[in-house]
Design a protein that fits this description.
This protein is an alpha/beta fold. The protein is about 30% helix and about 25% strand. The chain contains 5 helices and 7 strands, in the order αβαβαβαβαβββ.
Length: about 180
């Protein structure tokens, strides 16, 4: 794992030995090509952050702040090390808690929210998390959801609450969708 572009380009990132699916360079490149207009000085939320790769890539490309949320002590420790290694420790806040708890207590708004839950999370729970937790997306904000793709049976996430799907692409076993207000 590495940062692929921006001020921390080619810096290595530590990843947990198991239990996460880090974004491949191919997915990262595609996502960030689409996100570039939204990144300058953005407030980013990286839910189910794992190693923090998405948030750190965002900081490297011009985001102002990132809130990293993960329920694993191993992951949050690695995120801190990755922030220090890339020089972004002052731009990131790390929250050791589950996504639902964070969202229910959060009052901050975000320009970009990246939701990359474990593929084992039931689809209905993912929809509930998105629709009932108060994502606090800014008016011009973007929600990105990465979920498993299992052929034609993969349900499309319909978040509601005024969010509309504007993009969707399959990357191997992953389905990535963008939503806007």
């Amino acid at each position: 794992m590495r940062v692929i572009s921006g001020s921390a380009k080619n810096k290595s990132l530590l990843v947990p030995e198991k239990g996460t699916r880090p974004l491949t360079d191919r997915i990262k490149m595609s996502l960030f090509d689409l996100l570039q207009p939204y990144l300058k000085d953005a407030a980013v939320l990286d839910l189910f952050a794992g190693s923090g790769g998405f948030g750190i890539e965002s900081l490297s490309r011009g985001a102002k702040t990132v809130a990293f949320v993960d329920s694993s002590e191993v992951s949050t420790s690695l995120i801190l090390q990755n922030l220090q290694n890339t020089g972004f420790e002052l731009n990131g806040t790390i929250h050791l808690q589950d996504a639902g708890s964070f969202l229910s207590g959060n009052r901050e708004s975000f320009d970009i929210i990246f939701l990359d839950p474990p593929f084992s999370l039931e689809h209905e729970k993912l929809v509930e998390l998105v629709t009932k937790s108060g994502l606090n997306l800014t008016k011009e904000g973007v929600l990105i959801v990465r979920q498993p793709h299992s052929g034609a049976k993969t349900p499309v996430l319909t978040p509601g609450g005024g969010l509309e799907q504007v993009y969707q692409k399959r990357y191997g076993k992953s389905l990535v969708s963008f939503y806007r207000n």
